[in-house]
Amino acid sequence: MSLQRAIDLIVALRRHPEGLTTAQLSEALGVCSRTVRRYLSAWQMAGWVEAELGECGVKIWRVV
């Protein structure tokens, strides 16, 4: 994922994070859901995102 796509992901999360899934984010940004999950997982470990990581992807609760 390019830096611009990562920035787009952050902006999308800050606008309306609650209840978004990786599928919705990947479709909106035009990247694969695995890439979105990888970024969200790293951001969750850093404390930037509160999310539920599950079998069906990620459900975002809050962006810090």
TrEMBL record:
Occurrences of domain HTH iclR-type (ranges): 2-51
InterPro entries according to UniProt: Tscrpt_reg_IclR_N, WH-like_DNA-bd_sf, WH_DNA-bd_sf
GO aspect biological process, one term: regulation of DNA-templated transcription
Domain of life: Bacteria
Protein's UniProt name: HTH domain-containing protein
SUPFAM superfamilies named among the record's database cross-references: Winged helix' DNA-binding domain (SSF46785)
Pfam families xref list: HTH_IclR
Annotated GO MF terms: DNA binding
Species in which this protein is naturally found: Candidatus Fonsibacter lacus
